[in-house]
Design a protein that fits this description.
Blueprint lengths: L1 E5 L5 E5 L16 E4 L5 E4 L9 E11 L2 E5 L6 E4 L12 E9 L4 E5 L18 E9 L3 E6 L3 E6 L12 E9 L5 E4 L8 H14 L3 E2 L7 H8 L3 H13 L3 E4 L2 E4 L1
Parallel strand pairs: 12-14
Antiparallel strand pairs: 1-2, 3-4, 5-6, 5-8, 6-7, 8-9, 10-11, 10-13, 11-12, 13-14, 15-17, 16-17
Helix pairs in contact: 1-3
Length: 259
């Protein structure tokens, strides 16, 4: 049938023949993922799932039936999102951000699209200006809602986004404001003094790749700066200010020039 694997806690699990490596010896160690197969038996696989327990991930619906939506998570048996765990009825072929967790009643790994249940801002583990990991979840009238460090919920305002953002994107961000009610405002660009050096480096690299000249200056339209450099005009002015002080550029009425 395959290889029987054991761990340090005397648990045994079957690794079916189709996943057995070509070369092995008794006593070798192998990394596997364990889950319930189609017959509800615990089995091991050498396939790597797209998501594991207590994680958020963007997945595609492979099938919808009377039990719920089944997501493609990289394994033979799909990951179930029961109807009660769907914010809106899921559609086959569509992509959704879901949270994978262990259902204690059935001892199964399942997923939920009701993300707020698994996020809390009651006890924050972040501070203002911290760099954080983000997962983009949905677009609102104000901007994009994001998951922060797989724990908290935040918002990136639409007028502060200078590049294309989509549901499921994993990005670096920065805590901009912690409000009195613990709501978190997030920036996709470094904040304060931290924003100066990255902006200067990006402008410098753009100058080098553009033959040493950019038709941008402190009077340029903010949309032109956004299109060319994916940054705000305020950040651009900080960046060229830093480059000018370091005598790396010359600022002319019609643009900037590399020295």
């Amino acid at each position: 049938m395959g290889l029987f694997l054991g761990d340090d806690e005397d648990n045994d699990v079957l690794l079916p023949n189709k996943y057995v490596p070509e070369e092995f010896e008794i006593g070798d160690y192998i990394d596997v993922f364990c889950y319930l197969d189609h017959e509800e038996r615990i089995v091991a696989t050498t396939l790597t799932p797209f998501v594991t327990v207590n994680q958020f991930q963007l997945l595609q619906v492979a099938e919808v039936n009377e039990y719920g939506a089944f997501m493609d998570w990289g394994l033979e048996k799909h990951l179930l999102v029961p109807f009660r765990e769907q914010r809106n009825k899921m559609q086959e072929g569509q992509w959704y951000v879901v949270y994978c967790y262990l259902d204690e009643k059935t001892d199964r790994l399942v997923a939920s699209n009701k993300l707020d249940r698994f996020l809390s801002n009651d006890d924050l583990t972040v501070n203002a200006w911290d760099e954080v990991d983000l997962v983009v979840t949905r677009l609102t009238d104000l901007g994009w809602e994001v998951i922060i460090n797989h724990k908290h919920k935040g918002l990136v305002y639409a007028n502060e986004i200078f590049k294309k953002v989509s549901v499921g994107d994993k990005l670096k961000g920065y805590i901009k404001t912690i409000r009195d009610d613990n709501k978190l405002d997030v920036s996709l660009q470094p904040i304060g003094y931290k924003s100066q050096e990255p902006a200067a480096n990006l402008i410098y690299e753009k100058l080098v790749s553009n033959g040493g000249i950019l038709d941008l200056h402190d009077k340029s339209d903010p949309e032109d700066i956004k299109d060319i450099l994916q940054m705000s005009k305020k950040t651009f002015k900080k960046g060229i200010g830093a480059l000018y002080r370091e005598r790396k550029i010359e600022i002319k009425p019609d643009g900037i020039k590399l020295l």
